[in-house]
Amino acid sequence: MQHSARFVSLFFTGMLAVVSSTCLAEPETQQIPPIESRISEEKINDALSSAYKKYKNLKEGANANYIPALDKVDSSIFGIVLVTVDGKVYTAGDIKSEVSIQSISKVFTMAKVTEEKGIAALPKKVGVDATGQVFNSINAIEQHQGHEMNPLVNAGAITTTSMVSGKSYNEIWNKLLGYYSDFAGRELTVLEDIYKSEAATNQRNQAIAHLMYAYGHIDGDPLQATDIYTRQCSVGVNAKDLGTMAATLANAGTNPITGKVLVKPEDMPEILAVMATAGLYDDAGKWLYRTGLPAKSGVGGGIIAVSPGKFGIAAISPLLDEAGNSVRAQKAIADISAALGGNPYEATPYGK
Ligand code: GLU
After folding, report:
1. CA of 90 to the centre of ligand 1 (A)
2. Gap between the Cα atoms of 93 and 90, Å rounded
3. Whose CA is nearest to atom 6 of ligand 1?
4. Residue 195: CB within 6 Å of ligand 1?
5. pTM of the complete model
6. Would the CB of 135 count as within 6 Å of ligand 1?
7. Residue ranges per structural domain of the chain
8. By the 8 A CB rule, do 240 and 95 touch?
9. Ligand 1 centroid from CA 259, angstroms
10. Fold of 35-340
11. DSSP for 22-88?
12. Which tens digit of pLDDT belongs to each residue from 116-130?
């Protein structure tokens, strides 16, 4: 009895295999090898721990101080997290301490507006060109009457924030914070001391928003847009949050840990393209030349970088160079990506 039942089940399994291999033929080509078979777990751990050891004691750079509260952040924080597109998390150093997300938030607001308004909305209203000027330049606005910007410099970013739909301040803000949290895979909150300090000193950003309003790019209240933008910059994130956010971008817009779809796969190349051209302030070109990775840094000391289809990586260290990019985060990410073949421009000649 038992034998015959087993035979029947084997028979059907066999039939299914025949049917799927003859009629469907798809499963074989869809079998994606787990990321470890392409980059070994040991290799990833080695790359992270050697970068961490190499740069742990490097004291080069200084905390940002134009926002007073940033100057007080513990400058010894140093953590690195790499998350693969199949959701494996690799860490080195401090992955718990939170810093403010700052300009890295611009990427996720850009993603939100792209999803809400469609891929053509931002190029039309904001632009997708590197300005060749500092991130909070007023000259850059004047040069083209607020056109030819991108969502990662302040004028473009505040305009992008103003494009998030919602009937009230709270509705817009809760939507944005919820969206960032979905990228991180946990509920994020605002670092209130950073927000207060930045809100008390953001007159330049208010001026930028008024100019963008005057040139017809911001439709609603420019001061509300500036305040929501200031709040989005003050969201607290640790290295693991940023690593997961980066991995979501690397995984075509789906959080690889929670499985939540946050950006349509077809919208990701454009978002990554803007990160590649304008992600690291005035050193975006140097960074791309060195690593090939779309990335974004923030003056809180975080950097996220994306190796599409492979992994997202993030590092936090508040000590910044002259351009405003974390010294240790840049070095660690560049080394790790090089060790793991993360540069998307790398290829081998056909047949080799
Ligand atoms: N909230 C900061 C500002 O607008 C962001 C700066 C940054 O990280 O680039 O000045």
Report:
1. 28
2. 11
3. 103
4. no
5. 0.90
6. yes
7. 35-340
8. yes
9. 30
10. Beta-lactamase (3.40.710)
11. III-HHHHH-PPPHHHHS-HHHHHHHHHHHHHHHTT---SB---SSHHHHTS-TT--EEEEEETT--
12. 999 999 999 999 999
